[in-house]
Specification:
Rossmann fold; Zinc Finger, Delta Prime, domain 3; 2 domains; binds zinc ion
Amino acid sequence: MRMLFEHIPHLDRTKARLLGALQSNHIAHAQLFFGTEGSANLAMALAYATYLHCEQPTPQDACGTCAGCRKHQKLIHPDMHFVFPTATTKKVDSKPMSRDFIKDWRELVLQHPYFELVDWLAHIGANDKQGNISVEESREVVKTLSMKPFEANYKILLIWLPEMMNIQSANALLKVLEEPPPQTVFLLVSQDIKRMLATIISRVQMTQTPSFTDAEISSHLALQFKLSAQEAEQIAYLADGNMNRAYHLRYEGGKNDLHDWLRQWLREVYQASWAGCLAHAEAFDSWDRDAQRNLFVYFLNICRECLMWQASSKELLRVTGEQMRFIEGLAKTLPTEKLYELYPLLDTALYHLERNANTKLMFFDLSREIAALMRKK
Ligand SMILES: [Zn+2]
């Protein structure tokens, strides 16, 4: 994973706007990149930073080969500083600071820059913690920025998830933003600007990175992982605009045939074939938790599409071909009022799944309940 604009799929308008500002030398001293989880906000900030430190940038991108670019590709540029949420871990059992985790940070970012807070906390072994950016961290920032750049024109400080600052650290950051040290560029990367101080937001230039479309995700996946169009489309559909989720689905779930699976299972349910339902329950029980959850997410998505089909908003449907025929069939078997009864059943099943219930039994019970619903007059 490299750190150039060209490595971020699509989003051409966002890139063009940023590049336009850079080339006309409108370099805001504080930029806020915001977008939902799984968007390209971090990727965009990293590409922007690389561009700023590139020795021979072109109008479209950083060169990718100069010393500055090469250091950015490994996240080791001495004038590039990172601050992100931390928590105590086995390794760092008190006063955690970003610099204690910089190796972990490089590792994760270099895998792909679309990860979310939960992935980060899991990566540093703090799954059960909240994570935050402490006031000590903000003080450290002030110290770091008071130094001259080592080799570039600008020192860049990237703060990932500034919304994880408590009020004290946010106020400390505000003070630096109000009187920025010379030759310093702040890049704030947020997934939830509602939780940031309005006074901070008023000091930054905002760049929104829109969520990816299904087509953007599937074409990226097909290219990145050499997937068939059908596989890539199915993952994109489940990912729902979230590139991080798409990567997870690609790497972990391992069930790229959810659609076939759901169709075959519901056929057994429809025919009230209990032996078939039991076989499906046993198979389901052997899946890992992510794959199990994905099946339910997929099922819920399908229900949503059925509702839209019934409301005759067919142009809003996100599916085509075989999926479309399946949805038409299901929408006829489960009219709107029955779909509304199905939702709580799926919710309850998902609830039990998250709590390590007996998944085989849960799945079999659910089969019987759906069968009863289908037959109900
Ligand atoms: Zn370069």
